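not sure who needs this but someone in the group chat was asking about Thylakoid membrane protein slr0575 from Eutrema salsugineum so here u go. i didnt clean anything up, its just raw.
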Amino acid sequence: MGSISAASGTTVLSSSLRRHSNRRLGLYDRRHENLSVVSSSQPPLMPRQRWLYVPETRLKQEILRMDFIAGAADSTSSSPSVASGDKTLIPDDEFTLAKISFGVIGLGLGVSLLSYGFGAYFNILPGSEWSAIMLTYGFPLAIIGMALKYAELKPVPCLSYSDAVKLRESCATPILTQVRNDVTRYRYGDEQHLEEALKRIFQYGLGGGIPRRSAPILTMIREEVLTDGRYCLVLVFEAKGLQLSDFEKRQAKFTSFFGPNITAEVGKGESENIYEVRLISNVSTNSVSSTS
Protein backbone atom coordinates (compact mmCIF):
# COMPACT_ATOMS: atom_id res chain seq x y z
CA MET A 1 0.00 0.00 0.00
CA GLY A 2 2.85 2.31 0.80
CA SER A 3 4.36 1.70 -2.55
CA ILE A 4 1.05 2.28 -4.15
CA SER A 5 0.59 5.43 -2.14
CA ALA A 6 4.07 6.46 -2.96
CA ALA A 7 3.43 5.72 -6.56
CA SER A 8 0.20 7.51 -6.42
CA GLY A 9 1.87 10.42 -4.64
CA THR A 10 4.48 10.33 -7.26
CA THR A 11 1.84 10.26 -9.90
CA VAL A 12 0.08 13.16 -8.30
CA LEU A 13 3.33 15.07 -7.98
CA SER A 14 4.26 14.39 -11.55
CA SER A 15 0.83 15.42 -12.75
CA SER A 16 0.99 18.68 -10.76
CA LEU A 17 4.45 19.35 -12.11
CA ARG A 18 3.15 18.62 -15.56
CA ARG A 19 0.32 21.07 -15.03
CA HIS A 20 2.72 23.76 -13.81
CA SER A 21 5.01 22.97 -16.67
CA ASN A 22 2.14 23.22 -19.16
CA ARG A 23 1.10 26.51 -17.66
CA ARG A 24 4.61 27.88 -17.96
CA LEU A 25 4.91 26.53 -21.44
CA GLY A 26 1.56 28.05 -22.32
CA LEU A 27 2.63 31.42 -21.01
CA TYR A 28 5.92 31.09 -22.77
CA ASP A 29 4.19 30.20 -26.00
CA ARG A 30 1.73 33.03 -25.68
CA ARG A 31 4.50 35.49 -24.85
CA HIS A 32 6.52 34.42 -27.84
CA GLU A 33 3.39 34.39 -29.90
CA ASN A 34 2.76 38.00 -28.94
CA LEU A 35 6.32 38.92 -29.77
CA SER A 36 6.02 37.28 -33.13
CA VAL A 37 2.79 39.18 -33.81
CA VAL A 38 4.40 42.48 -32.81
CA SER A 39 7.47 41.87 -34.92
CA SER A 40 5.47 40.66 -37.90
CA SER A 41 4.33 43.10 -40.57
CA GLN A 42 0.73 41.97 -40.84
CA PRO A 43 -1.47 45.08 -41.17
CA PRO A 44 -4.51 43.92 -39.14
CA LEU A 45 -2.58 42.95 -35.99
CA MET A 46 0.16 45.54 -36.12
CA PRO A 47 -1.76 48.61 -34.97
CA ARG A 48 -3.63 46.69 -32.25
CA GLN A 49 -0.49 45.29 -30.65
CA ARG A 50 2.02 48.01 -31.43
CA TRP A 51 0.20 51.22 -30.47
CA LEU A 52 -0.15 49.89 -26.95
CA TYR A 53 3.56 50.58 -26.52
CA VAL A 54 3.71 54.00 -28.24
CA PRO A 55 3.92 56.85 -25.67
CA GLU A 56 1.44 59.67 -25.90
CA THR A 57 4.20 62.27 -26.21
CA ARG A 58 5.63 60.50 -29.24
CA LEU A 59 2.21 60.39 -30.85
CA LYS A 60 1.80 64.15 -30.31
CA GLN A 61 5.23 64.78 -31.77
CA GLU A 62 4.35 62.83 -34.89
CA ILE A 63 1.11 64.78 -35.28
CA LEU A 64 2.90 68.12 -34.83
CA ARG A 65 5.55 67.08 -37.33
CA MET A 66 2.93 66.23 -39.93
CA ASP A 67 1.15 69.55 -39.30
CA PHE A 68 4.43 71.42 -39.75
CA ILE A 69 5.15 69.65 -43.04
CA ALA A 70 1.64 70.42 -44.28
CA GLY A 71 2.00 74.11 -43.31
CA ALA A 72 5.35 74.35 -45.07
CA ALA A 73 3.86 72.81 -48.18
CA ASP A 74 1.02 75.36 -48.11
CA SER A 75 3.42 78.28 -47.71
CA THR A 76 5.60 77.17 -50.59
CA SER A 77 2.60 76.59 -52.78
CA SER A 78 1.23 80.07 -52.02
CA SER A 79 4.51 81.91 -52.66
CA PRO A 80 4.36 81.62 -56.48
CA SER A 81 0.97 83.37 -56.50
CA VAL A 82 2.48 86.36 -54.68
CA ALA A 83 5.49 86.44 -56.96
CA SER A 84 3.34 86.09 -60.06
CA GLY A 85 1.61 89.37 -59.18
CA ASP A 86 5.02 91.06 -58.89
CA LYS A 87 3.94 92.74 -55.66
CA THR A 88 7.40 92.84 -54.16
CA LEU A 89 8.60 96.14 -52.72
CA ILE A 90 11.71 97.66 -54.25
CA PRO A 91 13.68 99.79 -51.76
CA ASP A 92 14.43 103.34 -52.79
CA ASP A 93 18.17 103.13 -52.11
CA GLU A 94 19.42 104.97 -55.19
CA PHE A 95 22.10 107.48 -54.20
CA THR A 96 21.51 111.02 -55.42
CA LEU A 97 22.60 114.44 -54.19
CA ALA A 98 18.96 115.38 -53.65
CA LYS A 99 18.75 112.81 -50.84
CA ILE A 100 21.61 114.43 -48.90
CA SER A 101 20.87 117.01 -46.24
CA PHE A 102 23.03 120.06 -46.96
CA GLY A 103 22.07 121.43 -43.56
CA VAL A 104 23.70 118.48 -41.81
CA ILE A 105 26.80 118.73 -44.01
CA GLY A 106 27.22 122.49 -43.51
CA LEU A 107 26.57 122.33 -39.79
CA GLY A 108 28.92 119.40 -39.25
CA LEU A 109 31.73 120.91 -41.31
CA GLY A 110 31.36 124.34 -39.68
CA VAL A 111 31.33 122.99 -36.14
CA SER A 112 34.37 120.82 -36.90
CA LEU A 113 36.36 123.78 -38.23
CA LEU A 114 35.36 125.93 -35.27
CA SER A 115 36.30 123.26 -32.75
CA TYR A 116 39.68 122.55 -34.29
CA GLY A 117 40.33 126.27 -34.85
CA PHE A 118 39.77 127.11 -31.19
CA GLY A 119 41.87 124.14 -30.12
CA ALA A 120 44.71 125.21 -32.36
CA TYR A 121 44.40 128.86 -31.31
CA PHE A 122 44.90 127.94 -27.64
CA ASN A 123 47.72 125.51 -28.54
CA ILE A 124 45.69 122.49 -27.44
CA LEU A 125 45.87 121.03 -30.95
CA PRO A 126 48.64 121.38 -33.53
CA GLY A 127 48.37 123.80 -36.46
CA SER A 128 48.11 127.14 -34.70
CA GLU A 129 49.16 128.92 -37.91
CA TRP A 130 45.90 127.70 -39.56
CA SER A 131 43.60 128.53 -36.67
CA ALA A 132 42.59 131.95 -38.05
CA ILE A 133 41.56 130.47 -41.41
CA MET A 134 39.59 127.66 -39.78
CA LEU A 135 37.75 130.10 -37.53
CA THR A 136 37.08 132.46 -40.46
CA TYR A 137 35.46 129.76 -42.61
CA GLY A 138 34.03 127.64 -39.82
CA PHE A 139 31.79 130.33 -38.40
CA PRO A 140 29.81 131.15 -41.60
CA LEU A 141 29.59 127.47 -42.53
CA ALA A 142 28.05 126.71 -39.14
CA ILE A 143 25.57 129.57 -39.53
CA ILE A 144 24.56 128.47 -43.04
CA GLY A 145 24.22 124.87 -41.88
CA MET A 146 21.95 125.86 -39.00
CA ALA A 147 19.82 127.98 -41.33
CA LEU A 148 19.45 125.14 -43.85
CA LYS A 149 18.67 122.70 -41.09
CA TYR A 150 15.97 124.99 -39.75
CA ALA A 151 14.34 125.44 -43.16
CA GLU A 152 14.77 121.80 -44.12
CA LEU A 153 11.83 119.71 -45.30
CA LYS A 154 12.61 116.01 -45.18
CA PRO A 155 11.63 113.71 -48.07
CA VAL A 156 8.62 111.46 -47.70
CA PRO A 157 8.99 107.68 -48.01
CA CYS A 158 8.15 106.09 -51.33
CA LEU A 159 6.84 102.53 -51.62
CA SER A 160 7.40 101.16 -55.11
CA TYR A 161 6.15 97.77 -56.28
CA SER A 162 8.17 95.94 -58.89
CA ASP A 163 5.35 95.84 -61.45
CA ALA A 164 4.89 99.61 -61.12
CA VAL A 165 8.61 100.25 -61.57
CA LYS A 166 8.50 98.35 -64.86
CA LEU A 167 5.73 100.65 -66.12
CA ARG A 168 7.20 103.87 -64.75
CA GLU A 169 9.29 104.80 -67.77
CA SER A 170 6.59 104.05 -70.34
CA CYS A 171 3.34 104.99 -68.56
CA ALA A 172 4.19 107.69 -66.02
CA THR A 173 3.49 111.21 -67.29
CA PRO A 174 6.16 113.92 -66.90
CA ILE A 175 4.13 115.56 -64.13
CA LEU A 176 3.90 112.33 -62.15
CA THR A 177 7.64 111.84 -62.53
CA GLN A 178 8.29 115.39 -61.34
CA VAL A 179 5.98 114.94 -58.35
CA ARG A 180 7.75 111.73 -57.31
CA ASN A 181 11.20 113.33 -57.65
CA ASP A 182 10.19 116.50 -55.76
CA VAL A 183 8.67 114.84 -52.71
CA THR A 184 11.45 112.25 -52.31
CA ARG A 185 14.26 114.80 -51.89
CA TYR A 186 15.18 117.45 -49.35
CA ARG A 187 13.55 120.81 -49.89
CA TYR A 188 14.37 124.13 -48.23
CA GLY A 189 12.07 127.05 -47.50
CA ASP A 190 8.80 125.18 -48.13
CA GLU A 191 6.39 124.54 -45.30
CA GLN A 192 5.22 121.24 -46.76
CA HIS A 193 5.44 119.09 -49.85
CA LEU A 194 3.19 120.01 -52.80
CA GLU A 195 2.50 123.34 -51.12
CA GLU A 196 1.61 125.19 -54.31
CA ALA A 197 -0.69 122.42 -55.53
CA LEU A 198 -2.54 122.10 -52.24
CA LYS A 199 -2.88 125.87 -51.98
CA ARG A 200 -4.66 126.05 -55.34
CA ILE A 201 -6.79 122.97 -54.81
CA PHE A 202 -8.00 123.70 -51.27
CA GLN A 203 -7.91 127.51 -51.57
CA TYR A 204 -6.52 128.42 -48.17
CA GLY A 205 -8.45 131.26 -46.53
CA LEU A 206 -10.68 131.94 -49.57
CA GLY A 207 -14.40 131.53 -50.00
CA GLY A 208 -15.29 127.87 -50.21
CA GLY A 209 -11.79 126.92 -49.13
CA ILE A 210 -10.33 125.64 -45.87
CA PRO A 211 -8.24 127.31 -43.14
CA ARG A 212 -4.51 126.99 -43.63
CA ARG A 213 -4.14 125.26 -40.27
CA SER A 214 -6.35 122.43 -41.61
CA ALA A 215 -4.18 121.83 -44.68
CA PRO A 216 -3.45 118.16 -45.41
CA ILE A 217 0.11 116.95 -44.93
CA LEU A 218 1.72 114.52 -47.36
CA THR A 219 3.09 111.59 -45.36
CA MET A 220 4.13 109.13 -48.10
CA ILE A 221 3.63 108.14 -51.73
CA ARG A 222 3.11 104.73 -53.31
CA GLU A 223 3.63 103.41 -56.83
CA GLU A 224 1.34 100.59 -57.86
CA VAL A 225 -0.47 99.04 -60.81
CA LEU A 226 -4.25 98.79 -60.89
CA THR A 227 -6.16 95.68 -61.86
CA ASP A 228 -6.67 97.03 -65.38
CA GLY A 229 -2.90 97.45 -65.83
CA ARG A 230 -2.66 101.23 -65.45
CA TYR A 231 0.18 102.94 -63.60
CA CYS A 232 -0.89 104.80 -60.45
CA LEU A 233 0.87 107.19 -58.09
CA VAL A 234 -0.89 107.30 -54.71
CA LEU A 235 -0.55 110.40 -52.52
CA VAL A 236 -1.20 109.61 -48.85
CA PHE A 237 -2.27 112.62 -46.76
CA GLU A 238 -2.91 113.15 -43.09
CA ALA A 239 -5.68 115.67 -42.45
CA LYS A 240 -7.07 115.87 -38.93
CA GLY A 241 -9.40 118.79 -39.64
CA LEU A 242 -10.90 117.48 -42.90
CA GLN A 243 -13.41 114.86 -43.95
CA LEU A 244 -13.58 112.57 -46.94
CA SER A 245 -16.18 114.86 -48.50
CA ASP A 246 -13.64 117.71 -48.51
CA PHE A 247 -11.44 115.62 -50.79
CA GLU A 248 -14.25 114.21 -52.91
CA LYS A 249 -15.63 117.60 -53.96
CA ARG A 250 -12.11 118.61 -55.07
CA GLN A 251 -11.46 115.46 -57.05
CA ALA A 252 -11.88 117.28 -60.36
CA LYS A 253 -9.34 119.89 -59.26
CA PHE A 254 -6.78 117.17 -58.54
CA THR A 255 -7.38 115.81 -62.04
CA SER A 256 -6.98 119.19 -63.74
CA PHE A 257 -3.95 120.28 -61.73
CA PHE A 258 -1.91 117.09 -62.22
CA GLY A 259 -3.12 116.52 -65.80
CA PRO A 260 -3.12 115.97 -68.67
CA ASN A 261 -3.66 112.23 -69.13
CA ILE A 262 -4.43 111.87 -65.43
CA THR A 263 -7.53 110.62 -63.63
CA ALA A 264 -7.71 111.39 -59.90
CA GLU A 265 -9.60 109.18 -57.46
CA VAL A 266 -10.09 109.97 -53.77
CA GLY A 267 -10.51 107.40 -51.02
CA LYS A 268 -10.17 106.79 -47.30
CA GLY A 269 -6.94 105.44 -45.93
CA GLU A 270 -6.41 102.45 -43.66
CA SER A 271 -6.36 104.47 -40.44
CA GLU A 272 -8.17 107.48 -39.07
CA ASN A 273 -7.45 110.92 -40.57
CA ILE A 274 -5.61 109.29 -43.50
CA TYR A 275 -6.80 109.97 -47.06
CA GLU A 276 -5.47 108.76 -50.39
CA VAL A 277 -5.47 110.54 -53.73
CA ARG A 278 -4.75 108.13 -56.62
CA LEU A 279 -3.28 109.79 -59.68
CA ILE A 280 -3.95 107.22 -62.40
CA SER A 281 -2.09 107.56 -65.67
CA ASN A 282 -4.14 107.15 -68.82
CA VAL A 283 -0.99 106.54 -70.86
CA SER A 284 -0.70 102.88 -71.80
CA THR A 285 2.15 100.93 -73.34
CA ASN A 286 0.13 100.49 -76.52
CA SER A 287 -0.31 104.23 -77.02
CA VAL A 288 3.39 104.83 -76.39
CA SER A 289 4.41 102.20 -78.94
CA SER A 290 1.97 103.61 -81.53
CA THR A 291 3.25 107.18 -81.15
CA SER A 292 6.85 106.04 -81.40
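also The longest helix spans residues 2-39. if thats useful
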